[in-house]
Amino acid sequence: MRKLINQLASRLPLEFRVLFRQFLLRVIDLEALSIEADVERFLGQFAGVLIMISFVLAARLIYPTLFMDQAHTASFLREMTLQSEQSVINITFLVTGLITVISWDATFPDRRDVMVISPLPVKPYTILFAKISASAAVLSLAVLSLNLPASSVFSLLLGPLSGSAWGAIRFFCAYWFVIAAGSVFLYGSVLTIQGITTLLFPRRITLRISALLQLAAFALFVSVYFLEPSTPTFGALTQPQNQAFITWSPPYWFLALMNQLTGTLPPSLAWLATRAWFGLGISVTGAVVSLLFCYLQTMKRTVEEPDLVPGAGGLHWAPRIGSLLQTALVLFSIRSLTRSRQHRVAFAFFASLVSAIALSMVHAETQAQKPTPVSMDYLIPTFMMMGFATYGLRSVFSLPISLTANWVLRTTQLRAPEKYFAATRITMFLFAVAPVWFLSAALSAPLWPFSAVGGHLLVLALFGSLLVELCLIGLYKVPFTCSYLPGKLNIQVVFWGMLIVYSTVVLSFAEFENQALRNPNQFAVLVSALVVVIVGLWTFNHNRAKSAELYFEELPEEPITMLRLIIAPPPRSD
């Protein structure tokens, strides 16, 4: 298979192949690559995670049928058909949206493209096709990996319910057409919005608006996935209270389109499938027109107009946070997260996980009719949010903002290393622990008794402090200044480590805390143990920081080669 793909690729123009590989590296980002900066290995690990998610979706449909007879199995599958279709469409929209946002601006020309590639004998449409192909390759891999196992299982189980001998094949074809059409619709819609802002506004304003749109898109995709109501039957879709929502909800458009292609859509909902066709046509047309105008009209403007730079005038005021050094490093971290697209996207990924958990809790609270007691359903999500926030910020710290910041802070190091270390600790508290703590406090409003809520918030603050001290072990560098070696992050190991190891620890800790909240003596022991561990880790980190040396360069380990030479003993002279 790989040999066939290489043969087909060799027939493409050389300019296209070279540009495709370079643009593919920009979409993926070298800083996030797996071992030895291997693109193929990174894509394999990324696909492996999505395939496991697809198997979980399929298992939710298969597992209950293992304990049913044939009659009950058919009834169960009929009831689960619409829910299963809605589930796969929603998660496909979420993954497609997040990939589209992560690869923000990767399809449009930037200053480097214009300055380096334009003088070369390469036609603009070759650059355009190479950029689109690079983004489409990553998106196609994600969609295929996420849906291939699930589509096969759903087709074999749900297809025959139509009563036709070709039901499984028809369901399989309809499934993949709708999934592909939905992905193209979402991707084209984002490109259309980006293209409109690029064409209407100057480059400086476009760069500012683009950053806000990127973060807004993150919030929108995650919010829709977790707050969208579930409609288990077609009758629920036709109810008047649901009409206003499904009218403007693209996942429901393509859900209706899938059932229209399989022949199971009621005539009263045909207008919903029509919206999917119109939406697909408008998004594709808008994306094509936007890309053509941007490559033909705005490439020169990219060179002539300046990039986004800090304003020289106006009022510049910043709060005092500790010492002058601590204030400077905290403000430097804030500006690194807000002005750098790479850092903003990386941290927004972890922030989206925190937001997703919070939105799921909000959705559960809105369904409750009266105040509910503090339970595991509240404790576990708050610990998960704290873990994702602290680990995400710690991961972003390792990515450099620029070589200028590296050398400026290196040449101006006039304070002891523990002063820089203390500033890093304050930054993690301000950007990770404090936001999650206040968010958890806001989500605890409908819970009772309030003594248990207050006790958990105290434990959560101590738990966040513990995670901060654990993340600071061995971190003897200024955030966003140390050069990074590509290949240190193994995405699959990190994902399954957080999902399995950390989730297991959180589950055990939350169960113990749930019991301690009802027992004052046990709660006092828990708080005292956390304080002792935190003080011990703080003392350890502080003492190590005193003798540590700040480093600004990540250097690879020098391999030691053993020659295994055996020195023969000298001959004996008799």
Could you describe the 3D structure shown?
- By secondary structure, the chain is mainly α.
- Helix content is 73%, strand content 1%.
- The protein has a two-stranded parallel ribbon with strand order 1-2.
- Helix 11 (250-262) crosses helix 12 (270-297) and helix 16 packs antiparallel against helix 18 (417-443).
- The N and C termini lie far apart (69 Å).
Outline the secondary-structure elements.
Layout lengths: L1 H9 L3 H15 L10 H24 L7 H33 L8 H7 L6 H35 L8 H34 L2 H25 L6 H4 L2 H8 L2 H13 L7 H28 L1 H6 L19 H16 L1 H27 L4 E2 L2 H22 L5 H9 L5 H27 L3 E2 L1 H22 L19 H26 L3 H28 L27
Parallel strand pairs: 1-2
Helix pairs in contact: 2-6, 3-6, 3-20, 4-6, 4-7, 4-8, 4-11, 6-7, 7-8, 7-11, 7-12, 8-15, 11-12, 14-15, 14-18, 15-16, 15-18, 16-18, 16-19, 16-20, 18-19, 18-21, 19-21
